[in-house]
């Protein structure tokens, strides 16, 4: 009996319990169509559902790797800002929420700034991570946007913002709202330097982020199905007492109404962005003039003779000839 208890039973128990454990993150469910997607297929497809085309949210590091040439970029260290300036506490302390978000994402705050090449052109990208407290904009995010703008001016590079945010960070109160004008000042630095500023609107872009730097771009690109708004649809319905369209506040709806320039699938986003940056950074030849005619726009190259300025003698001769043609001769004049 001791032999069965001490030897056979442990062997059988070890044999049964020796099955390899299956990781619980091999399959992901699409939030839109609820289809199960294998994790390798999801990564290959850039976290876009292969069944319904739903664009899932990306982490900041994956977004930067996707946009820069060969996934090569350099992240900068952002200036330090005040932590918990209001000593805020709701169900948790604000410092505890920050610590949890930092552990979860591996970032100090909701924004990451990096520089590199896009299509061979220098670019600075400020990207938000929605997993960090909903991508909310606090003082650290304002400092990050200013740092990104100054870096773009210093490197003579295009600035690209990729917001994914629920708006202002309530735990910082009025200090969070002050980041809206600060972000506008940051964008003005870039525009005053004559550099391109491009915004890639991702899901979601709402609140104070939409009301500030996210709508100041030279070009606005949006991912399909992204929610882009200031106030929520329910709040708007209760205010105007009307039923809103089904696709209200989506990228496609804003494209139809002129608030977004182009909606681009994530797989074509980098090449589209590279083409736009190259077009905005390419100097326009001075000898090219765009003319409009009945057949549409045509590019006409000015010849050397057209560009050569007239000499004072030539101008005087032409003026005299025009005056002589305009005045009648003495014999043609009527007698008084």
Describe the structure.
This protein is of the alpha/beta class and 336 residues long. The chain folds into 3 domains: 23-56, no CATH class; 58-281, 2-enoyl-CoA Hydratase, Chain A, domain 1 (Alpha-Beta Complex), CATH 3.90.226.10; 288-319, no CATH class. 38% of the residues lie in helices and 16% in strands. The chain contains 13 helices and 11 strands. The chain is globular, with a radius of gyration of 31 Å. Residues 287-309 have low confidence and may be disordered.
The protein's oligomeric status is single chain
What is the CA-CA span between the terminal residues?
150 Å
Low-confidence stretches: 287-309
Q: Main beta sheet: strand number and arrangement?
A: 7 strands, mixed
Helix coverage percent: 25-40%
- Helix-strand makeup class: alpha/beta
Strands across the major sheet, in which order? Answer: 3-4-5-6-7-8-9
Order of helices and strands: HEEHHEHEEHEHHEHEHHEHEEHH
CATH secondary-structure class of the largest domain: Alpha Beta
CATH superfamily membership of the largest domain, which one?
2-enoyl-CoA Hydratase, Chain A, domain 1
What's the CATH architecture of the largest domain? Alpha-Beta Complex
Mean pLDDT: 86
Rg measurement, Å = 31 Å
The helix tally amounts to 13
CATH T-level topology of the largest domain: 2-enoyl-CoA Hydratase, Chain A, domain 1
């Amino acid at each position: 009996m001791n032999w069965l208890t001490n030897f056979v039973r442990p062997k059988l128990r070890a044999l049964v319990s020796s099955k390899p454990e299956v990781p619980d993150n091999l399959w992901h469910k699409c939030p839109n169509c609820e289809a199960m997607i294998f994790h390798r297929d999801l990564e290959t497809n850039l976290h876009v559902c292969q069944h319904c085309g739903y664009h899932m949210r990306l982490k900041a590091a994956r977004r930067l790797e996707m946009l820069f040439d060969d996934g090569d970029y350099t992240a900068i260290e952002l200036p330090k800002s005040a932590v918990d300036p209001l000593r805020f506490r709701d169900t948790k302390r604000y410092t505890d929420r920050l610590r949890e978000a930092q552990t979860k994402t591996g970032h100090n705050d909701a924004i990451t700034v990096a520089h590199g090449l896009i299509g061979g052109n220098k670019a600075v990208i400020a990207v938000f991570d929605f997993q960090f407290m909903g991508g909310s904009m606090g003082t650290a995010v304002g400092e990050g946007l200013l740092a990104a703008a100054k870096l773009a001016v210093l490197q003579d590079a295009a600035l690209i913002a990729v917001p994914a945010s629920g708006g202002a960070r309530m735990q910082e109160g009025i200090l969070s709202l002050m980041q809206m004008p600060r972000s506008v000042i940051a964008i003005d630095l870039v525009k005053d330097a004559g550099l391109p500023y491009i915004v890639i609107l991702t899901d979601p872009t709402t609140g104070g982020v939409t009301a500030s730097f996210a709508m100041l771009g030279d070009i606005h690109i949006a991912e399909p199905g992204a929610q882009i708004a200031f106030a929520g649809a329910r709040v708007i319905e209760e205010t105007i007492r009307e039923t809103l369209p089904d696709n209200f506040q989506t990228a496609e709806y804003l494209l139809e109404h002129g608030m977004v320039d182009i909606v681009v699938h994530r797989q074509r986003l980098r090449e589209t962005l590279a083409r736009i940056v190259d077009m905005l950074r390419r100097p326009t030849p001075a000898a090219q003039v765009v003319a409009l005619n009945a057949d549409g726009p045509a590019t006409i190259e000015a010849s050397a003779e057209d560009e050569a300025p007239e000499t004072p003698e030539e101008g005087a001769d032409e003026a005299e000839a025009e005056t002589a043609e305009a005045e009648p001769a003495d014999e043609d004049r009527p007698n008084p």
